[in-house]
Amino acid sequence: MEGPEPGRPDPGGVPSATSRAVQDMRSGPDSMLRWVLAMSQRPLKRSLTLRGHRTSVSLEDPFWDAFREIARAEGKPLNRLAAEIDAARGVEIGLASAIRLYVLGHFRDPRENGRGPDKARDG
Question: Does residue 120 register a pLDDT over 50?
Fold first, then answer.
């Protein structure tokens, strides 16, 4: 699933709802509550192809949207980024959890994901 999902427009260069939510989350407690409410939905199964094999992960929309945004920003196909995460994870952690941790790490430590020290000081 490289392009927009059925029924969901591809925002192109427009910041995703997840990016805005992360920025809002840094703005105060009311924004954090909105983020928590968005995360309270049930995860949806998403299909991926890792090294030629189909698999699925269950992720909440905000994590899936952020994962797609990161892949786009890194100029990588979504399946390639998923395969890299899969190869780096240990056997004790599931792929969906590994993706969530990757997304969290991306937004928590901008210096490690190429967004540079200036962005790190802003957060």
Answer: no
Residues 77, 71 contacting (CB under 8 angstroms):
yes
Closest listed residue to residue 1, CA positions, set 60, 81, 74, 62: 81
Measure the CA dihedral 14/17/11/64, to 10°: 130
Instruction: Please state the domain extents for the chain.
Output: 43-122
What DSSP string describes 56-96?
EEEE-HHHHHHHHHHHHHHT--HHHHHHHHHHHS-TTS-HH
Question: pLDDT digit string (tens) for 30-82?
Answer: 666 766 666 667 899 999 999 999 999 999 988 999 999 999 999 999 999 99
Whether residue 10 contacts residue 3, with contact meaning beta carbons closer than 8 Å, is answered with yes
**Residues 123, 110 contacting (CB under 8 angstroms):** yes
Mention the CATH class of domain 43-122.
mainly alpha
DSSP letter at 54? E
Closest by CA to 12, choosing from 78, 69, 71, is 69
Among all chains, which residue has been given the structure tokens 């899969």?
86
